[in-house]
Write a structure and sequence with these properties.
12% strand; elongated; Rossmann fold; single chain; three-stranded antiparallel β-sheet; six-stranded parallel β-sheet; 19 helices; 427 residues; 11 strands
């Protein structure tokens, strides 16, 4: 029987035996979602009436409704939902009762807020020494900016991400989607799992401190140390790519049916330069790039040492643009890959939803919405584990949907007590 139970738990995911209390707003809701995908029982706690992030657009059928936010659906799938007012004494007492039956707490309130409520890490650790509390804030728990508020836009700006995004001749550009929020949530999940590993060895929990600004700065990859290494400050590349003031070039081209992402100058430079020019020539599209003069310029080592002039750049780009516009993306990708050039189509969201490779790997996961009488395809698990698979199992909770299951089922409160707490606005 024990072996069967363990097998069932493993099938539900690596965190199936564990419970998470998720207090996060949009800054960190992805963290709880990731733990839920790993099989944890994630309980999303909202104020009575619902979390403000339920009103983040877009909405199902473009109809604003507390249960219709697609943002809420995405970032709170795989969670149960309860309402709880932590500003009331009874609410705080219930929360501590939940902590005693939980393993993780995720919160995004300003530093000091939880402690002022008597629910800081020291308070939670006193109630349960093994608890892992993850705090996700704009600038961390300490430092001169600790009490500053921030949106994803501010995180992207103050983390340096915007400075490297956009056209070099124009102002910095923010990404379309909330990259800073996503990045801090992922890093917070990694920190949470690191603290969990420590707990499995010691039995003692930790306080995990995740900063939006630091997450965005980490997103810059090698940009931050580039000055120390090369004495060059990276800048916005636009539709090009350049790192050290040497060779750079355009890498997105318009095809007959959309856009292609390619190596700089379509791979005209580099180890496969001759093959690339021969490919263009096979379609009578190489213009004069196959000449001896241009072959010398396109030589891999010489091309890196001696950048092209502006006029030469414009000519190479014009040849490639004219070539790409003649053919559909699938043909360009197939033929480029055949000569070992890294070309690929720039997919639209619709194309991703219909992509044969993602479908073949069962990435898109149908999730039922019984109240709507239908199901929707959700992005699937963010990793595939052979022994303890991750999964997206159910939709996001409706407001207070699991109050009875949690307060009566987990905490053992009577129906009369639950009704009393509801009437008082505690749950």
């Amino acid at each position: 029987m024990v072996a069967d139970a363990q097998k069932t738990a493993r099938a539900r995911g690596p965190l199936a035996p564990f419970r998470v209390l998720d207090l996060a707003n949009e800054l960190g809701q992805l963290t709880g979602k990731m733990l839920g995908d790993m099989g944890a029982d994630v309980i999303k706690l909202e104020p009575p009436g619902g979390d403000p992030s339920r009103w983040i657009a877009p909405f199902y059928r473009d109809e604003p409704h507390v249960e219709g936010s697609l943002h809420w659906w995405m970032f709170n799938a795989n969670k149960r939902g309860v309402t709880l007012d932590l500003t009331q004494d009874d609410g705080r007492a219930l929360f501590l009762d939940l902590v005693r039956q939980a393993d993780f707490v995720i919160e995004t309130s300003p530093p000091g807020t939880m402690a002022a409520l008597g629910l800081g890490y020291a308070d939670l650790a006193a109630a349960k020494p093994s608890i892992v509390m993850t705090s996700i804030t704009p600038f961390g728990q300490d430092g001169p900016y600790a009490q500053w508020r921030a949106t994803d836009l501010i995180g992207a700006a103050m983390g340096g991400e915007m400075y490297l995004n956009g056209d070099p001749a124009r102002e910095p550009l923010r990404p379309t989607v909330s990259q800073a929020y996503a990045q801090v949530s992922v890093q917070a999940a990694v920190g949470t799992m690191t603290a969990h590993f420590h707990r499995t060895r010691t039995g003692v929990g930790q306080h995990v401190d995740a900063s939006l600004q630091e997450a965005a700065a980490t997103l810059l990859d090698n940009a931050a140390p580039f000055w120390d290494l090369m004495h060059v400050n990276l800048s916005r590349p636009g539709n090009g790519r350049g790192t050290s003031g040497r060779l750079s070039g355009k890498y997105v081209f318009e095809a007959a049916d959309g856009y292609m992402a390619a190596l700089s100058y379509g791979g005209i430079f580099g180890l496969n330069a001759k093959q690339a020019v021969a490919w263009l020539d096979s379609h009578d599209a190489a213009d004069d790039l196959g000449s001896e003069e241009w072959q010398e310029k396109l030589d891999a080592s010489r091309g890196v040492r001696t950048p092209l002039t502006s006029a030469e750049v414009d000519h190479v780009v014009a040849v490639l643009e004219a070539f790409c516009r003649r053919f559909p993306r699938a043909q360009l990708m197939r033929e480029a890959q055949a000569i070992r050039n890294g070309w690929a189509p720039v997919h639209t969201p619709r194309e991703l939803a219909e992509h044969e490779h993602l479908r073949a790997r069962d990435y898109w996961t149908p999730i039922a919405h019984p109240e709507l009488g239908t199901s929707f395809d959700y992005p699937g698990p963010w990793a595939k584990l052979s022994a303890t698979p991750l999964s997206v199992r159910h939709r996001a909770p409706r407001v207070g949907e699991h109050n009875h299951d949690v307060y009566a089922g987990m905490l053992g409160l009577s129906a009369a007590r639950c009704a009393e707490l509801a009437a008082a606005g505690v749950i």
